[in-house]
UniProtKB/TrEMBL annotation:
Catalyzes the conversion of GDP-D-mannose to GDP-4-dehydro-6-deoxy-D-mannose. This is GDP-mannose 4,6-dehydratase. The gene is gmd. It holds the Pfam family GDP_Man_Dehyd. Belongs to the NAD(P)-dependent epimerase/dehydratase family. GDP-mannose 4,6-dehydratase subfamily. Gene3D superfamilies: NAD(P)-binding Rossmann-like Domain, UDP-galactose 4-epimerase, domain 1. It comes from Gemmiger formicilis. CDD domains: GDP_MD_SDR_e. Its EC number is 4.2.1.47. Its cofactor is NADP(+). It catalyses: GDP-alpha-D-mannose = GDP-4-dehydro-alpha-D-rhamnose + H2O.
Length: 362
């Protein structure tokens, strides 16, 4: 039985990867940070599985990473942990650099110092944000990097230190350059989940309006559940190489909004341009989407579009197993149910409070 160690196992990708590897017959170990707040909802259903184990550690703490790696002695490591929000990286650039850049080095050194450099294969979660102010469309493994945020700059160090350890120590370590990958497990502060939740809440009368940044930003959006398969395939390859993981299709934030709102029964019409653009419900004439300067970044990437030809050709991976339309619907359906449950819970609490006040129940 192979052993896999996943950092960032409580995240969207980590939870899907853990499920995928357990189905493949792996003994799965995950690294989690100690917190007084429970943030394990994505992996709660896996706890208690005989081949699922959790260890405390943090990418900012080299000793904890070394301890976990030397104890587990994994066959494969998937380094998915990161401060992964681009906007937040402008607010906490030093923390972002410590985790997203130096954290990668700590993982590589832990493997080397544990005497596993010849047996352990390492996957590093890289990002399309490396291309930043893009110099070529679409972007592939040979496209020059032009990082355009503290997050992207930190991730560029991670990419190059993986390449350096591969060449200097002959380690099997690779980077997957993932383009935007979304799912119903995506954090609620990310734009796609923000849109699907808002669509569900507006449709059910729980929210009036959605505020967004640049509606014309173009992204290559795929389904995270599909992308973890490619992560695994990269480590099963005969030789360590870096791969772009993308769908090869491009859509705007505006298109994502139109589909999401369509799936909840609201047809949108966009009027105006730039900061004055608005999304209007055709049926009611009500403005449900507005642009806010608060969601514009100091430097913004506007045109990400990946070329997954290498992954398709060399790994046999299908990047469009789930279509863009299916992805949006999966997320919307999930959030419609989530909002319905929230409404039901609020109704119960309201009724309970009224009954207590009237003395109907004690």
């Amino acid at each position: 039985m192979k052993k896999a160690l996943i950092t960032g196992i409580t995240g969207q990708d980590g939870s899907y990867l853990a499920e995928f590897l357990l189905e493949k017959g792996y003994d799965v170990h995950g690294v989690i940070r100690r917190s007084s707040v429970d943030y394990r909802e994505r992996i709660a259903h896996l706890e208690g599985h005989p081949h699922f184990h959790l260890h405390y550690g943090d990418l900012s703490d080299s000793m904890s990473i070394l301890s976990v790696v030397s104890t587990v002695r994994p066959d494969e490591i998937y380094n998915l942990a990161a401060q992964s929000h681009v906007q937040v990286s402008f607010d906490v650039p030093e923390f972002t650099a410590d985790v997203d850049a130096t954290g990668v080095l700590r993982v590589l050194e832990a493997v080397r110092l544990s005497g596993l450099k010849d047996t352990c294969r390492i996957y590093q979660a890289s990002t399309s944000e490396l291309y930043g102010k893009v110099e070529e469309v679409p972007q592939n493994e040979n496209t020059p990097f032009h990082p355009y945020s503290p997050y992207a700059v930190a991730k560029q160090y991670g990419f190059w230190i993986v390449k350096e350890y591969r060449e200097a120590y002959n380690m099997f370590c690779c980077s997957g350059i993932l383009f935007n990958h979304e799912s119903e497990r995506r954090g609620e502060t990310f734009v796609t989940r923000k849109i699907t939740l808002a669509a569900a809440r507006i449709a059910q009368g729980k929210q009036d309006k959605l505020y967004l940044g640049n509606l014309s930003s173009l992204r290559d959006w795929g389904y995270a559940r599909d992308y973890v398969e490619c992560m695994w395939l990269i480590l099963q390859n005969d030789k360590p190489e870096d791969f772009v993981i993308a769908t090869g299709e491009q859509h705007s934030v505006r298109e994502f909004c139109q589909l999401a709102f369509h799936d909840v029964g609201i047809e949108l019409e966009f009027v105006g341009e730039g900061m004055n653009e608005k999304g209007i419900d055709k049926a009611t004439g009500k403005t449900v989407i507005e642009v806010s300067p608060d969601f514009y970044r100091p430097t913004d990437v506007v045109n990400l579009w990946g070329d997954p030809s290498k992954a398709k050709r060399e790994l046999g991976w299908n990047p469009t197993k789930t279509t863009f339309e299916q992805l949006v619907k999966i997320m919307v359906d999930h959030d419609m149910k989530k909002v319905a449950v929230e409404r039901a819970e609020e109704h119960i609490k309201t009724n309970l409070a009224e009954y207590l006040e009237k003395g109907v129940i004690k």
